[in-house]
């Protein structure tokens, strides 16, 4: 009956096994995600987050990935999957066609706009933005990107103390995403979001983390993953047969 059906407890969800690139192997439940990473995450968001971590071999308990759930009155804004500090570069370096990068800042100096490598801005100069080039072995031209400081500067956290470093990183992330669209999909770097990603989660002590599993000889098959972001609709399912690091990017 309808009454008895309403009283039937929800079927427990099976933990997702994650074999991280750092060698750790976890079984992580939705409750683990809500307890340690994103308290307001829905079941669907937990599922997408964990499948993304599994597909990309990310360890969510060492701040390699975050699930940021923005507060909004209507509660209709989906969570965003955000990569930690060095994950974008680590993922690029695993790709067989990655061939290095150049990146820097754009400044106004002596009335002229100048682009330079690195992230130094001298006294008397105005920081305008960042730029980056990413090279692939199988392409004759690099992916080039310029970004404007005013579009990303939140004036908070690292943006308040290291704006040149942050805008350079945003440009590099954009260029990497252009160069390797299949690798990054709808993933964001923490420099691109308007909140302090590290403040949304904490690194766990050994005794707190979900139980570690014996390392398998072969990583489990990677199911299709739909990544929901705050700024765009789902990017669409990824091919479960593709290696996210070694596959061919369009």
Give structural notes.
The strands form three sheets. This protein has a four-stranded antiparallel beta sheet. The radius of gyration is 20 Å and the shape is globular. The chain starts with a helix and ends in a 61-residue tail after the last strand. The protein is an alpha+beta fold and about 250 residues long. The chain has two domains: about 15-95 and about 185-240, no CATH class; about 95-180, no CATH class. The protein has seven helices and nine strands.
Helix content: 10-25%
- Globular, elongated, flat, extended or rod-shaped: what is the shape? globular
Calculate the mean pLDDT score and round it: 76
Instruction: Tell me the β content.
Output: 15-25%
Give helix and strand order, one letter per element, not per position.
HEEHHEEHEEEEHHHE
Structural class: alpha+beta
Radius of gyration: 20 Å
Structural domain count: 2
Q: Please, how many helices?
A: 7
- Ranges where pLDDT stays below 50 over 5 or more residues in a row are 4-10, 195-248
Distance between the termini: 52 Å
Number of strands: 9
Adjacency order of strands in the biggest sheet: 6-5-7-8
Please render the helix and strand layout as text.
Layout: H1 2-7, E1 16-19, E2 25-28, H2 30-36, H3 43-56, E3 65-68, E4 80-83, H4 87-94, E5 98-109, E6 112-117, E7 126-136, E8 143-148, H5 157-161, H6 163-179, H7 181-184, E9 188-189
Protein name: Phage recombination protein Bet
Biased composition (Acidic residues): 238-250
InterPro entries: Phage_lambda_Bet, RecT_fam
């Amino acid at each position: 009956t309808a009454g008895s059906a309403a009283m039937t407890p929800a079927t427990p969800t099976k933990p997702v096994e994650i074999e991280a690139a750092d060698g750790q192997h976890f079984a992580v439940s939705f409750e683990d995600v809500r307890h340690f990473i994103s308290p307001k995450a829905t079941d669907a968001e937990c599922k997408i987050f964990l499948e993304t971590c599994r597909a990309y071999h990310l360890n969510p308990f060492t701040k390699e990935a975050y699930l940021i759930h923005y507060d909004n009155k209507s509660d209709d804004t989906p969570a965003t999957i955000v990569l930690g500090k060095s994950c974008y570069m680590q993922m690029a370096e695993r790709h067989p066609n990655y061939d290095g990068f150049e990146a820097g800042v754009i400044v106004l100096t002596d009335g002229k706009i100048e682009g330079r490598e690195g992230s130094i801005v001298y006294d008397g100069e105005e920081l305008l933005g960042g730029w980056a080039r990413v090279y692939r072995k199988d392409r004759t031209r690099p992916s080039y990107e310029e970004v404007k400081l005013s579009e990303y500067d939140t004036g908070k956290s690292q943006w308040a103390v290291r704006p040149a470093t942050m805008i350079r990183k945003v440009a590099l992330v954009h260029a990497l995403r252009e160069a390797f669209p299949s690798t990054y999909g709808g993933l964001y770097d923490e420099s691109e979001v308007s909140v302090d990603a590290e403040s949304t989660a904490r690194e766990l002590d050994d005794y707190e983390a979900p139980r570690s599993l014996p390392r398998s000889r072969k990583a489990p098959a990677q199911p299709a993953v739909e990544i929901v972001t705050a700024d765009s609709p789902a990017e669409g399912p990824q091919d479960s047969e593709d290696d996210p690091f070694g596959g061919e990017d369009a």
